[in-house]
Cellulose synthase-like protein H1 (Acorus calamus), 540 residues
Amino acid sequence: MMKKEYEELRQRIEQKINDFASFQCEEDAKDFSGIEVRNHPSIIKVIWENKQAGPDGIPHLIYVAREKSPNHPYHYKAGAMNVLTRVSAVMTNAPFMLNLDCDMFANNSKIMLHAMCLMLGFDNEVQSGFVQCPQQFHGALKDDPFGNQVVVLQQYVICGIAGIQGPPYGGTGCFHRRKVIYGVSPGHGDPEKITKETFGHSRELMESATQIIKGTTKKDVGIYDLSSSLKAAKNVARSDYEFDTSWGKEMGWLYGSTAEDINTGVRIHANGWGSVRCTPDPPGFLGNAPVGGPESMTQLKRWATGLFEIIVGHNSPLIAVVTKKLRLRQCLAYMVINLWAPRSLPELCYALLPACCVLSDVAFLPKGQMVMVPISLFMIYNAHTLMEYLHCGLSPRAWWNNQRMQRVTSATAWLFGLLGVVLKLLGISETIFEITRKDRTISDEEEIDGDAGRFTFDSSPLFVPATSIVLVNLVAIGVGLFRGGEGVGLGEVACCAWVVLCFWAFVRGMFGKGRYGIPWSTIGKAGVLCSLVLGLCMLG
């Protein structure tokens, strides 16, 4: 019955859209004809206006396309969020804002009420600068084969950070106070600081900001005449509006990092605001997780790049903890996440250490009873992490998938994230915001064949280092077995086998076909690197 009613509703909506489209065709053709994706003026359309401002009416629905010009930077998602902030300010000026990624939807009909209870339920608003819902997914693959559903991270790390100064801003599923986005510190809102040098030359925007900071906004935002504010809205959506202003620097979503969400969240916490974690049942919002190797690695590379950019930027938690109001423990919590990219170097060394020792005939494990020390550490760590996954209701298979994917991620996405930031610091190249594809779904054929969670590959250089690690360790295992126990002990060979087991998806990829196989060009490049490592080991 539900499916039948939904289908009828869908048909009625599509019919209304078709009727509206034919009615608006000539009007819209003027704005959309002859434009380019990255070279067009501001386009703002009031699709639906709630003129009666009734509590049960359909809210305003406004289409916004900011101006783009090849002569001006548009700062990717952060720039889009700043444009939406300014446009909504001159059109409705609501004191609270919700931002969602395009792949997410509201899963709890009362999520707005849950968030407003947290926004307005504290004696001091400083405790709730923003309200963050944890990122959760619908239709996710069983046992998290790509290690990107972050269930344990949300349950332990983020929940723990929430007990300090609040959870970090996750970029989606977040409710904001407009004045906090404007860079206002708790108890320090000064309307006199609203100038053209900070907000830009729009009189309407400065007036709306003054209302927000003074707390004198109109209670019923529905009484705004949206049509009369279109000119002002198009003005603040211009590509050159932010020049010589504080947008992207001290207010709005901050620029300078592909992880604009964490970067902006650090600024908010550094100004003295707290944040709150909202975890209703059922979850407030659900989204899509990448379902392939290239998609997952692209997302993780962008995260690692942006997080490390924050550390070396002017908004670094290391600076904010000294010069601003970021707490020391909150700074340390940010460092756990922001240092993903540099972690790739020790992880890479550990992945190659056993193989290099076997090839050089040098032992790194202690002899005799002392060998129980590293064995005990290994067993305790794995038992502890396994208990965390079981406590979260996940299976041992999910634990293993995340353990092996962490090794894969460190040798691919994190390593290239580090290289990207280093090249940026040296002035050789700029980091770019890479869009993560989340629209691909698992086909029926993949479900039937059991390949729904199988790792996929493409010709990206991301996969070269991990393939090299596999080749080096396979050679080391062969050398160790050929020696028949002479020279280094079996412990080093067992460590090589453990590394290969962690990268088993790449072993399968060497013999796979199509997108399940590693391209020969990648294997060739990895073979060259493997030869270099073998040569260095032999010389050693």
In short: The mean pLDDT is 88. Strands lie at 43-48, 61-65, 96-99, 105-106, 130-132, 174-177, 275-277, 285-286. DSSP finds 21 helices and eight strands in the chain.
